[in-house]
Amino acid sequence: MARLDGKVAVITGATGGIGRAASKLFADEGAKVALVDLDEAALQEVAQSIGEDKASYTVADVTQPDQTQAYIDAAVNRWGGIDVLLANAGIEGTLASIPEYPVDMFDRVMAVNVRGVWLGIKYVVPVMEGRGGGSIVITSSTAGIGGTPEMSAYTTSKHAVIGIMRTAAIEGAPLGIRVNTVHPAPIETRMMRSIEEMRVAAMDDSAVTVEVAKQSFADRIPLQRYGDPREVAHMMLFLASDDSSFSTGGMYMVDGGRSAGSR
């Protein structure tokens, strides 16, 4: 039997690299998936690739309470309930030291990466309670367990969701709701391309290319490579499924060993 048979999963940030991989994997494992993002054309593409019998989508800004309630309601109306929330929407912000970091960008990163997670949990818990429980999986990062120079907003946001996770895990346990975070190292996604390009621009050195920047990140990973989005999605599947029925309040690394040693 597929591991998510009979379950409904809401996936935010569904058009990004990890979101797409998780959406497809969850559907392949039997779930009905309700996809959430800002880009309607990209959402349509992902939903069509999965099939309308398994996937629906809602265009929503996860930082807005009314739009968060709307995507929760849309999933319930389409599929009858929600068993899994994959709170995956996130942005990287820019690269700059704290004194130089734009205040408006800091606020935007915190809004998407932290407020968006908190709002999703706020509105999905009553629905899950009515189903007798569920699983909430939050995408954090290896940046959530250490400092990252010139990425204060992103790093702060990924630490913050651990606090949300731990609180929600305690509050959710009596309701049968489990809550965990997943912590990827650099993964082959658009976000890492963006970070690599910003590193190159900041160096202002013609010898430093995107390939050089990528290799410098990979060199810090014991397995000496970036992860694949599907590798992250498989950890998310474990936490979404009943295979992890006694796992809550935990931090799960998908990082090629990066967190095991010095950063």
SSE layout and pairings?
Blueprint: E1 8-12, H1 17-28, E2 32-37, H2 40-50, E3 55-59, H3 65-79, E4 84-87, H4 103-131, E5 134-139, H5 152-172, E6 177-184, H6 190-203, H7 210-218, H8 229-240, E7 251-254
Helix pairs in contact: 1-8, 3-4, 4-5, 6-7
Overview of this structure, please?
This protein is of the alpha/beta class. The chain contains 8 helices and 7 strands. A 7-stranded parallel β-sheet has the order 3-2-1-4-5-6-7, sandwiched between helices. α1 (17-28) crosses α8 (229-240) and α4 (103-131) runs parallel beside α5. The relative contact order is 0.15.
Question: Which characteristics define this entry?
Answer:
47% helix; alpha/beta; 263 residues; 8 helices
Distance between the amino and carboxyl termini? 40 Å
Across the major sheet, the strand order is: 3-2-1-4-5-6-7
Radius of gyration: 18 Å
Beta-strand percentage? 5-15%
What's the number of helices? 8
> Quick check: average pLDDT?
95
Low-confidence runs of at least 5 consecutive residues: none
Characterize the main sheet.
Answer: 7 strands, parallel
* Shape descriptor: globular
User: What is the H/E order?
Assistant: EHEHEHEHEHEHHHE
| Helix percent band | 40-55%
The tally of strands reads 7
Query: What structural class results from the helix and strand content?
Result: alpha/beta
